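Backbones bend. Shown next:

***
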Amino acid sequence: MENNDFLSIKNWAPDDRPREKLMNKGINSLSDAELIAILIGNGTKNESAVNLAKKMLSVVNNNLNELAKLNLSDLKKTKGIGDAKAITIMAAMELGRRRKLSDIIEKKKITSSRDIFELFSAKIGDLPHEEFWIILLNRSNTIIDYHKISQGGISGTVIDIRLILKEAIEKLASALIICHNHPSGNIKPSDADIQITKKLKEAGLYMEINLLDHVVVSDNSFYSFADEGIF
């Protein structure tokens, strides 16, 4: 059989074409590269969309979580991937995040630090920059709302305790949980993380708003201040 890497997909045997394969055999029959090839749509003069997808995946060692961390410029480093193709891939990765987040939000109630991890690993675990979020809860630990408080760079973000308590007061929250990500993948809290947690815990007591936990997440692990007895 001819090498499909250098043929337009329309010239492949029907069973080898990703779209036809999906229709005939189901979506689970497709590899990650074939699914990405459907997003890409067309290859180049010398390479098929599947081969472009394989090259892109090889950059991240075939890890979809790592692929989701790439920005527009990163994706375009693969020869043959321009703005349109890169934007389509980024949109698909974001939809995946949001679907996972929607599934978790339906649970509504926080019962453990793992619930927090599952909620925010989907939202911020694989981001290349830090984001700081709060979850507002009522007396039964049911989620009232959640908000991003700040966004920073690779190594940190600025936190304002007044803004956090303002959000909690306006929503009549009885408790709150704070969460942020470490893009490095190292979930050990910094001294600054520990200090802001202690300050917020103390400030919340005056307002009768209990800080239940501070969770540091990456895409596959987490650190819970409550579990570790930090405060």
In short: Strands lie at 131-137, 143-151, 175-181, 210-217, 222-224. The mean pLDDT is 85.
